[in-house]
Amino acid sequence: xxxxxxxxxxxxxxxxxxxxxxxxxxxxxxxxxxxxxxxxxxxxxxxxxxxxxxxxxxxxxxxxxxxxxxxxxxxxxxxxxxxxxxxxxxxxxxxxxxxxxxxxxxxxxxxxxxxxxxxxxxxxxxxxxxxxxxxxxxxxxxxxxxxxxxxxxxxxxxxxxxxxxxxxxxxxxxxxxxxxxxxxxxxxxxxxxxxxxxxxxxxxxxxxxxxxxxxxxxxxxxxxxxxxxxxxxxxxxxxxxxxxxxxxxxxxxxxxxxxxxxxxxxxxxxxxxxxxxxxxxxxxxxxxxxxxxxxxxxxxxxxxxxxxxxxxxxxxxxxxxxxxxxxxxxxxxxxxxxxxxxxxxxxxxxxxxxxxxxxxxxxxxxxxxxxxxxxxxxxxxxxxxxxxxxxxxxxxxxxxxxxxxxxxxxxxxxx
Length: 415
Fold this sequence. Notes:
single chain, alpha/beta, Aldehyde Dehydrogenase, Chain A, domain 1, Aldehyde Dehydrogenase, Chain A, domain 2, 2 domains, about 40% helix, globular
């Protein structure tokens, strides 16, 4: 594939998108939604082929779950796409306006980033989410999915491009790197002449490779080693319901719970209740020495590195801590700074936890599963950023814009 040609076409498309108004962009998104509905059978059939190929290749249950795109999931994705239509368009918004003493009127205006390259694995829903959010914000996109989802993505992009043409926008606003040759990823990372931002959505190896090899700004995120700390004042029954939701509802995603920290003052009473609640749900408890001593044969012994793992399965690390300070120390050492929370009825302790935990999303008495663009009212997300510059947490429309200074004078010269 000629990536340079793809980059040039994307850049040219971005110029046209930058001047498209909200009405035109929303009409294009609705056209895409209708096209996805009309082509449901073809999309689902292609995904079934990917699923079967994944089974034959020995993909894990977690990857197969991420890969799945059946009628129900497609309907949910289309609903998210339509919710993006209803969101306010941030492009063109002016803020931080002021009038200088010399008469110059200054403001910041939100504008598209330009061309966004997204490298991702397994999840065909990302193809639709990225296309929708980028189009709404006037950005062109270059997508590179994994080989395990190539059939699904090829059909999705074909449908999206056809809908774009029908809506009067360039089909090259959304392009897909059809080859699975990994060398093309390295080439994409060097295309700073055409691409303005890289978003890798995948394992730690992919994130590191992009970070170390890109000449384009990279948004790091999506790796979730998530914690909940059960503080001594927590309501046991309510805490168990939150832990179940965070761990069991969908264990293969980045905002699922990986490690439970329990205050030693309540551990002897709480941990047996935890086992009684989670073991019937097929959860495997992995305990450090203190937790294992209380849980006995209801837990396996934690091995070195287990508390730095993103499980992506029905495994839950359990550790007994002496209190807030040890819980914070553990989180600082092992967290990926994605989503961490505390279960407590002491809001003085809760506030200390909020201030001390340096994660993109911090929760008090709520499940980590809420870290999601749709749940946050963003319509969808392009990624969950765990870095500190430009964007943190679920990246929605505003995070896909930058700004320019606008200065307006009356034929003003600097004195």
